Amino acid sequence: MNFRTEYNGRRVSEPLDVSRPVVLLGSCFTTSIGERMRAGRWRAYPNPCGVLYNPMSIAMVLETALSENPESVFAESVVEREGRWVSWLTDSKVSGSSPEECVAMLTERFSDLKRCLAECSSVIITFGTSWIYELADSTGCVVANCHKFPEKRFVRRRLSPEEISERWRQTIGMINECCGRKRFIFTVSPIRHLRDGFEGNSVSKAALMLACADICRADDAVYFPSFEIMNDDLRDYRFYASDMLHPSDTAVEYIWSKFREEFISEEDNRILDDGEKVTKALNHRPIIAGTSCGETDRKREYSEQALERLALFLDRHPGMLGI
Questions:
Q1: Are 287 and 302 in contact (CB under 8 A)?
Q2: Taking 80 as the threshold, does the pLDDT of residue 277 lie above it?
């Protein structure tokens, strides 16, 4: 007897090309998938502007990166918090000791994103929550991160599916107009946001899935069911990390394998497998017994062999990730 319902997606008619860069934006689940892509030597750029959870903040980051005068947006977004300057556009990893330093870091990160968008063929978006926080003293300014400011500074509300899909149709149109037509893959993060409560998290995820269904009616957007695989296929607490909120490494690896089956050809999957072997060789730190001089020479030799292996891999597969 089979006591489990396994997700078996069918490979898309036009698989992704692993020799072309891909941009990933969204929750920390996005970072986990992006890291696995890079481990296979795929030129993936996960969250160049930091982790983003709600659909409006992700859209705002993309639109700002492509705007004619992003510096003015940066200057208006920075705020001081306990001696550090942070931005309402990003998470706390983008910060500075002065407004100028914070704006300079924003300029660098958003310039990287703009360059990545120009180079990539596909954009993968992961929505984390439909709950948003707006600044109470402004009109509709959605913040990407509250930076531990008091709750009284914000108005909290849940986005409707219609708000999300309408905004994202505009964002997709802007990206395609500025950077050429891209392929969009949307997914909902399997990470549970239980600070919203069980009911609040469920309603939030439902709104995101309805929005994705509406957005993906377009020809250039498709949906990948990360949330559904976690909850309807794996469906067990043993696939969660110790916090019982985030998927375990095993679960992320399983979801990644399902993504590969659906969006990557057999030939390109073999390339990623070869790339993973190269990455393991580059990251390996051999334990070599002997004199310190001989040990250093052996380690240098091993490092050179790993770099030669990478060079051969890149010769066979131009466009993959170098050092």
A1: no
A2: yes
